[in-house]
Amino acid sequence: MLVQTTTLSIGHADPYPLAATHTKAKDAPESEPIRFSLESIELGTRKNGEPFASAVLIEREEQVTRAIKLTRSQQRAMKAFDDAAKEHGQFADDGSFVGVHRDDWRAAFLRIATQDNDDSKSKAFRRACTDLVEKGELDVADDVFRYVGTFAWVKNQAVTATRTAGQDTDIAGHVQMARP
Q: Which of the two residues, 82 and 163, has the higher pLDDT score?
């Protein structure tokens, strides 16, 4: 009787955010990690004709880059962006998060900025805008910034979920999309 024993570990596997990795392979060579990304797929249509989606793991062929290290100032700017997204985010007709206008982000940033005067706070905000776009964490078009960097999909879903909190669901675990 031939017994094959293989154990896989699912989790973070440098440099991938999520991977299935051999942790044990009796009498067999270990394989390369299987890389995944978290994606949204449409599962069907509700009774009212609207589509519904869920998060699924999709195997990725390409190598995933490491998360970008942000300075404390950049982290503070991202916190302000997250806050502005939840308070003043712009949404598409389908309820998906589009982005945050520069003025709304600036107001959230100025509330938590640690600089001594308004001029220093404004310079720090402009620097943060440039740095976060150059690092690939955010993108901008027509003064509307949006997530594009590390875990952008998850962040977009979190903002949308904040907007849809308290709405009824018609499928277990699935929130209907918010109306703009």
A: 82
